[in-house]
Amino acid sequence: MNVTSSRATDPARIKADALVVPVPSPPGDPEGPLAAVDSALGGLVSSVIADGEVTGAAGQVRVLHTRGDLPAARVLLAGVGDDPDRGAWAAAGRAAARAARDAGAQRVALLPPAGADRGDVRAMAEGIATGAWRLDDFRSKKKTTGKRHRAAGDPDVIVAGGALAPAGVRAVAATAEAVNLARELAETPSNHMTPTILAKRAEQVARGRRTLSIDVLGPRELKTLRAGALLAVAQGSAEQPRMIVMRHRPPKAARTTGEVLGLVGKAVTFDTGGISIKPSAGMEEMKMDMAGGAAVIAAMGLIADLEVPAEVLAVVPSTENMPSGTAMKPGDVFTAMNGMTIEVTNTDAEGRLILADALTYCARQGATRIVDMATLTGAIVVAIGDVYAGLFGSDRAFTELVREAGDETGDLCWPMPMHPGYDPLVKSAVADLSNSAKKRQAGAVYAARFLRDFTEGRPWCHVDVAGTAMQGDYASGFGVRLAADVAQRVARLR
After folding, report:
1. How far is CA 82 from the centre of its chain?
2. For domain 3-161, is the CATH number 3.40.220.10?
3. What Rg, from alpha-carbon coordinates, does the chain have?
């Protein structure tokens, strides 16, 4: 995939297989680029608007055949809705990309309205660059399009009208690559994406990026560190655990602050629930219980590519959660890296266990503030669905910074409560903490409350992506843009 720019505003001068033009709701009379397309097609755009075939509704795509009147064989009228946010612009781009893929288009041009906000244009361009991606590695006959046999869903993208500066175009390309990598890692079947393989993929991300380094900790190092919570989850599996540690260190002259942002991502490469086993229906989706870790690994590559002028430390604990004769059992007590004891009352609440040791390690390795991302609880899906991720924080200003980053990138986060009144839910009768409450209430809240005890007092945010990281059978790549934007904002702190 290549992303390029063009200053051409005349659709007759834009050479592409498909031309994407945003349409607001209600569309009204065509203006700007939309009017130019309408004129070139003899009033066809005005006609489909008048007939009600194009409403500009969010996600609506209407395909018009140009029949030689324009260089592009098709014009895709992509609805962005009424008063769209960044997420709506990105969603419109993704919908247009899927329509372009179905038409076999290999070069897709975006012609935004004159004077469009650059952030909106970038979001839609990223949507086009990522929307048609799909994992074809495990098909015996890989689907291809066109004479060049390019993998389906991998188009070249042209941002027309001079809407983005060269740096913006490069950022679109880097972001799309990172988002698609996160999706690939999360969707890959678990027999092809073990903790060991995930660590090797992280090493590939670090390789060739001069500001990135990586250290992979195995069972021996984890035992030395007394990472008892992570090792407890791993003991039920034949696959060895890994803790992946990545660092982005820009040149000292480029650093704008003494802050070190910590990014922690849960990477359970397959989650059966352990002894507290999950229902069999839908369990195949649990290969994506590593989506938070995948997003963090991909985001580190993006942060390096964007040359973010702040130090960033990523810690990704990775294991399987399996039932076996050696698996942890309900009622077992383990000691985490920070010395706290944890009673395991539900082995399917394993994500918070591996995050506990990762958060402590991240803080002790120098992070001054931490964001963790995890497919942690079904409760957050029940509470707020798949539009927003749940956002929990120990520091009001830092939590607001993360929320604003979500608004900016379209990785939306909704602030959730962290009131002391929830503290009793994580109490244990025999240990310092319980990993699951007996009361069926506030599940996402007490999971976050549990994590807070392992942050060493650092300003910290937990992003529960259980509802947003997976869209149906597919990974969304949620969190990659968010993490990179948080890093940019941390670089500006004074």
Report:
1. 25
2. yes
3. 23
Average pLDDT over residues 244-253: 93
Would strands 389-393 and 413-415 be described as parallel, antiparallel, or unpaired?
Answer: parallel
The closest alpha carbon to 233, from 112, 136, 334, belongs to: 334
- Give, for 152, the enclosing helix (H) or strand (E): none
Tell me the DSSP string of 406-419.
HHHHS--EEE----
Tell me the per-residue pLDDT of 173-182, one tens digit each, with 9 for 90 and over: 999 999 999 9
Q: State whether residue 439 is helix, strand or coil.
A: coil
CATH number of 176-491: 3.40.630.10
Yes or no: say if 357 and 315 are a contact pair by the CB < 8 Å rule: no
Q: How many CB atoms lie within 10 A of CB 5?
A: 21
Residues marked as catalytic = 278, 352
Position 130 pLDDT exceeds 60? yes
Asked if 405 and 486 count as a contact pair (C-beta separation under 8 A), the reply is yes
**Confidence class of residue 195 from pLDDT cuts 50, 70 and 90?**
very high
Q: Where are the domains of the chain?
A: 3-161, 176-491
Hey, what amino acid is at 423?
Answer: D
How far is 229 from 227, CA to CA, in rounded Å? Answer: 6
Q: Give, rounded to a whole angstrom, the gap between the first and last alpha carbons of the chain.
A: 38
CB proximity list for 204: less than 8 A, separation 6 or greater = none
Record the pTM.
0.95
CA–CA dist 131, 116 (Å, integer):
21
